[in-house]
């Protein structure tokens, strides 16, 4: 008999969603978190956007889980009073060549079953009179959610249903003990071990290292992560009212472009850019030197904003499976039966739209283990 039934490593929004879902009909669940509180890494450092599912490759986990997760998330927010706003989003073309690019984005989004409308310049300016546009895609189902409200709810519901949440508890090794796993943890310098029948690796930026602890060769498995920082700049309060919904550029190279983000304090921010971190250091500082490049990106959409109107704000770090310049890769969510590790589920590369997808990911993991 194992000491616990399910061990969830990592209390970000993904681990919390899994803990909340699993606790509906399982007992003996423990969630381990190395920081002093849940949600202190990527889950509290993002745009808080509920993505509609526009950009992802049709049939991919990102596309399927984003669309399912979006609907589940809106339903949960309505039912449980979690703060959200279905504000909608525009992807605005600022030139005729960009307008042509919108067609393929529209077709991709519609293949994913996303409701989208193509708007003329006049229709765009009716919605957002201050932005530059020669036409745009309107996504009425895109919104923003208070990720802190969401995580508080998921944490509370897991606790209420008997999940043990262990902060300041870092998993340092994972071994095999018969059909179970032996997990070693360090808690305030004290090392101890216990056995668990099921282990779910939801360790975000560290999920590749946790998979390696279980004995997986993360290079041949394709699990090794690279880090890509995304920084944000905040707009001066006097200009925060220039847009009232999310406004995105047409994607250029990597990522979906520096876009307008509306936060819960009524602030307007722009971000995130994409900066690969070769040394994988968790450095969240936002360099003032980026002001000029941010200013230029922002002015493509909102010419009223000068470099003096923006100040460095927060940043987050994406756990990416693709290297710089490579095409986007899908989420890895695998029950490692074929590696002889039945009961171990690895979640790797859960970058955007991970927040949107969290409830669908929890459902998917449960199905994998059924
Ligand atoms: C800049 C940026 C913008 C984004 N914008 C959006 C958006 O608008 N919409 C959207 O849907 N998604 C967005 N995302 C993606 C989203 O934030 C992530 O997909 C999601 O937060 C991932 O959650 P997680 O639980 O996997 O990871 P995390 O929140 O990082 O949680 C993992 C946890 O595991 C813990 N941990 C790690 N190793 C160990 C260990 N050995 N022992 C114990 N605990 C451990 C960590 O301390 C951490 O708390 C964005 C991401 C970034 C970086």
Bound molecules: flavin-adenine dinucleotide
Largest sheet entry:
8 strands, mixed
- Helices, by number, come to 9
Radius of gyration: 21 Å
The SSE order reads EHEEHEEHEHEEHEEEEHHEEEEEHEEEH
| Portion of residues within helices | 25-40%
Query: What average pLDDT do the residues reach?
Result: 96
Description:
- This protein has 370 residues and is of the alpha+beta class.
- The chain contains nine helices and 20 strands.
- The strands form four sheets. Strands 1, 2, 9, 10, 11, 12, 19 and 20 form an eight-stranded mixed beta sheet that branches. Strands 13, 15, 16, 17 and 18 form a five-stranded antiparallel beta sheet that branches.
- Bound molecules: flavin-adenine dinucleotide.
- The site of flavin-adenine dinucleotide (FAD) has 41 residues, from helix 1, strand 10, strand 18 and helix 9.
Name a few traits of the molecule.
370 residues, five-stranded antiparallel sheet, alpha+beta, elongated, binds flavin-adenine dinucleotide, 20 strands
Q: Can you describe this structure in just a few lines?
A:
This protein is α+β, with helices and mostly antiparallel strands and 370 residues long. It has helices spanning 13-22, 61-80, 96-111, 121-127, 147-160, 207-213, 218-221, 291-301, 354-369; strands spanning 4-9, 29-32, 49-50, 84-85, 89-93, 117-120, 135-139, 143-145, 164-166, 169-177, 180-187, 190-201, 226-235, 246-249, 259-262, 268-271, 275-277, 310-320, 332-335, 344-348. A hairpin with a 2-residue loop joins strand 11 (180-187) and strand 12 (190-201).
